Amino acid sequence: MVNRLSTAISPYLRAHSDNPVDWREWGQDAFDEASARDVPVFVSIGYSTCHWCHVMARESFSDAEIAGILNDNFVSIKVDREEYPGVDASYMAQAGAFTGQLGWPLSIFATPQGIAFHAGTYFPPVPISGYPSFRQLLEAVLDAWANRRAEVLENAAALGRAIAAAPAPSGGTLPGLAEIDAAVNRLAAVEDLQYGGFGGAPKFPVAPVLGFLLESGTGAELGARTLERMAASPLRDPVEGGFFRYATKRDWSDPHYERMLYDNALLLDAYAQAWADDERRVWASAAASGVADFLTGVLQLPSGGYASAQDSESVIDGERSEGGYYARDAEGRSVLEPPKLDEKVLAGWNGLAIAALARASVLFDRDDWLESARWAADYLLENHRGADGRLIRASVAERRSAARATLEDYGMLAGGLLALAAATGEPAYATAARSLLDDTLAAGESAGSIFAEPGGGDPVLAASGTTLAGDPSEGAYPSGLSASADAAWRLYLLTGEGRYRDAAAAVLGVVSELALANPLSFGTSLSLLHRMARTPVQLVVVSPDSAGRTAGLPASIRARRTDVTALVTEQQARELAAAGFELFEGRIPRNGRRAAYLCENFTCRLPAEV
Length: 610
Prior knowledge:
Layout lengths: L10 H4 L8 E2 L3 H10 L3 E6 L4 H11 L2 H10 L1 E6 L4 H11 L10 E5 L5 E5 L13 H14 L1 H17 L11 H13 L17 H10 L3 H12 L14 E2 L7 E2 L2 E2 H15 L5 H19 L9 E2 L2 E4 L2 E4 L7 H4 L7 E2 L2 E2 H18 L2 H17 L10 E3 L2 E2 L6 H18 L2 H21 L11 H6 L15 H16 L2 H20 L5 H10 L4 E7 L11 H4 L5 E6 H9 L16 E6 L2 E2 L3 E2 L1
Parallel strand pairs: 1-3, 2-3, 16-17
Antiparallel strand pairs: 2-4, 4-5, 6-7, 8-9, 9-12, 10-11, 13-14, 14-15, 16-18, 18-19, 18-20
């Protein structure tokens, strides 16, 4: 049997390369083979730090008899959901027609045309509590394929038609501050008053929602309570500083020990926001510093990019241990091999980390965090562009994935580069961010939408008609739409170009009703709605070319709440203004000393020496 996964970009796929299952990577050729053989397709979707994905791999995909059934009767495709988020989103939507228990591993049975006709998640090796074993499921699917083919194909076709015909959300007027405050009240109604957070178990950090609450003013104390309790809880690793993905118990204990790049990037942003309030500085500073050190010291790879995640499992005394490494102190860990990193560098998630570290570097006056963000950005700008100039979603050790960049990659990386430009003053990062946003706006215009992926989405999904265009749903991190809208708004604050503001407003017009009704799932959109509902505040600090940009900058200036804070030299301000970034026009030092320009919607007060 040909080992097709041994050279895959994805570490998750490579971990399955020794399975006796004849796995294929995602691509049209796998579906063409299924059509030629007249067999169904089995699509298994997961990711490196997914616990039950590992379990199903050990129990079922390593079993020679089960592998034989799959190899003889199916074409089997293994997909890393982090490498192909559009594929995962499409099949997750299709799976909802068959089960309400959605998650990973996601197990899809599809026609050779790529449309699901049955779906589920984890299946055990033996029947448990009414759930069939994986072997029984395979036998039932094969029976339906052999004896009820017409029904199977018609059901799949109906599902395909339903996905293709799903109406695009329509836009509307943007809500005011009173309506946004009502969303804060909805969140307050589900607060866990004893332990912080929202609802019962399992409990997730929902970092975008915490960021929204801190920005909202009326919900700031609610957000701060949860952040403070999380910082003191078992969800936070007291040794290396990072936060685990979620807790299985209401008091934040018994966590699932994987540590995700996106969670920690967004939580760094939230704790940095909390630090700006004097009363929160002690615990917020400790938590933010711990997260930043985890990002720079654990997740940052020798290439400069940040790994997607760190696994929950390690090997201790020859036995596989879930969380055993994290139960030890620093000395105890020093003799152990740490849990593996998923070394896949994702453009979008790296953008979140770059933004968080750049902003935190200004607040905390940490040049080492800024250099980490710059290193990652330089890696991405050098290695995540194709020959056609389009963005590349994933790489490992400078090997590039065939997966097309998604809208989240463009939006999140643009946002990261804009934050880095504001912190370093370097025009190249700002112009690179503008280029990314312009590409998505041009693609959106061609597609009849606001933002879209340049070059279109995944070609296999497009061929089957199951692409989910403009999916507004958020969760643990921004959607492609909300990330792009947020970056567009930030770009407007630097350029003054109304087309970026209008694009952000158009996206929010589409999602605002959903966001207000379901605030726990739309933190990024709510943050942007709140910022756009009030007068934006911009701060530009201009230093003489011979002086340091941040040396001696007072904490009162660094911690000032603004929509954008930019630290530049006089020369950088001139270059930015010449490149079309209007905010920097005429910004010069005062009397040979550093000057601060505080502006409201581009109207600035007289500069003050700082």
